[in-house]
């Protein structure tokens, strides 16, 4: 299941984002969206192999205050935002 995460702190790196999501299950990939200079755009993709784990992550993390940023987390439909 592919998740899209918005409103991430600019200084957050892939390892920190991985640590936030790993408590919900396996992770196959974490990709922070960056501009051509490598600066974070404040959004990311998190791929989880199991649908139920992804749904649990969305329920737990959507709209939480993380490092003074209210995250937005949702499941991406195949072909949307990829």
Major β-sheet annotation? 4 strands, antiparallel
Q: How far do the termini sit from each other?
A: 12 Å
SSE succession:
EHEEHEEE
Strand order of the largest sheet: 2-3-1-6
Say which CATH homologous superfamily is assigned.
Answer: RRM (RNA recognition motif) domain
Extract low-pLDDT stretches: none
CATH architecture: 2-Layer Sandwich
Organism: Rurimicrobium arvi
Domain RRM: 1-73
Keywords: RNA-binding
Protein name: RRM domain-containing protein
Architecture blueprint of SSEs:
Layout: E1 2-6, H1 14-21, E2 29-34, E3 40-47, H2 51-61, E4 65-66, E5 69-70, E6 72-75
Antiparallel strand pairs: 1-3, 1-6, 2-3, 4-5
Keywords: RNA-binding
Pfam family, one: RRM_1
Domain RRM: 1-73
Describe the structure.
Residues 1-73 form the RRM domain. This is RRM domain-containing protein. Pfam families: RRM_1 (PF00076). With 82 residues, the protein is an alpha+beta fold. The chain has one domain: 2-Layer Sandwich (Alpha-Beta Plaits), CATH 3.30.70. It contains two helices and six strands; from the N terminus they run E-H-E-E-H-E-E-E. The chain has helices at residues 14-21, 51-61; strands spanning 2-6, 29-34, 40-47, 65-66, 69-70, 72-75. The chain is globular, with a radius of gyration of 12 Å.
Concise summary:
This protein is an alpha+beta fold and 82 residues long. The chain is built from two helices and six strands.
Index terms:
82 residues, Alpha-Beta Plaits, 2 helices, two-stranded antiparallel ribbon
């Amino acid at each position: 299941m592919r998740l899209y995460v918005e409103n991430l702190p600019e200084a957050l790196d892939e390892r920190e984002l991985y640590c936030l999501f790993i408590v919900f299950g396996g992770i196959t990939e974490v990709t922070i969206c960056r501009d051509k200079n490598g600066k974070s755009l404040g959004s990311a993709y998190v791929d989880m192999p199991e649908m139920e784990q992804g749904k649990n992550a969305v329920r737990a993390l959507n709209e939480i205050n993380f490092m003074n940023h209210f995250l937005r987390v949702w499941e991406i439909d195949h072909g949307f935002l990829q």
